[in-house]
Amino acid sequence: MTILLAQISDLHLDGSERATERATRVMNYLRALPQPVDALLVTGDIADHGDPAEYEEAARILAAPFPVLTCPGNHDVRTAYRKALLGEAPAEGPINRVHRVGRAAVLMCDSTIPGRDEGRLDAETYDWLTRTLDALPADTPALIAFHQPPVELHHPLPDAHRLEQPEQLAALLADYPQVTAVITGHAHTAAASTFADRPLIVGPAITWTLRLPWEGEAPADRTQPPALAFHILDDTNRLTTHYRVVL
């Protein structure tokens, strides 16, 4: 069975008309698709300041007839995120969730370090990853998603704030061949690479697009439209990704 996933990232909702309009535009596009997606992945920086009101707005904008799976980014605040998006009591620990989407498992991980832009999967998250993957049937394809990419993307801004200690994650993945791909956000540019012999897919941003070094000096290009990714997991567990801008 083929699985169709959409991915959005880096909404940076801050109460401004611009941020609200861009996120709403993309969600309206997804809701209007002739064939609905099996799930939407939202890979962090949902709020810009981590204020409760920003998450309340996010909950309204992200409401959809398909499952919406989220993980936090470096701009997110775990306590407010938990209360408004998950309906849970505020707590400081990492926010890790596994979701079954058809025959696949999607592991949405918390790679944030409170108060810092860099990412790291802490000991609690590694324990959770191990237990979760061990509990899955061996023939269940798994996707792991979190915020900060674990590789260089050849731009000084995201490369200065990527996932720390990526070798630890690579060692874990070596034990779990059923992990089909790693999916991240954070960089504000659609990108594709490899990590630990798996596809590494970086989703584009809703709020602004990263201007690459050969495109100019100012990193934030606010003239580009918001964009999203479609991930197709086919019957052979091969992942294919298509990117779209939403005008």
Secondary-structure element series: EHEHEHEEHEHHEEEEEEE
Number of helices: 6
Global shape: globular
Q: Estimate the strand proportion.
A: 25-35%
How many E strands?
13
**Main sheet?**
6 strands, mixed
Instruction: State mean pLDDT (0 to 100 scale).
Output: 97
How do the strands of the widest beta sheet line up side by side?
A: 4-5-6-7-9-8
Q: Whole-number radius of gyration?
A: 17 Å
Helical amount among residues, as a percent range?
Answer: 10-25%
Pick out the low-confidence regions. Answer: none
Strand-pairing-aware structural class: alpha/beta
- Tell me the span between the first and last alpha carbons: 31 Å
Q: Could you walk me through the main structural features you see in this protein, from its secondary elements to its overall organization?
A:
- The protein has 247 residues and is an alpha/beta fold.
- It contains six helices and 13 strands.
- A six-stranded mixed sheet has the order 4-5-6-7-9-8, with helices on one face. A five-stranded mixed sheet has the order 3-2-1-12-13, with no helix packed on it. A two-stranded antiparallel ribbon has the order 10-11.
- Helix 2 (52-62) runs parallel beside helix 3.
- The longest helix has 15 residues, at 17-31.
- It is globular and about 45 Å long.
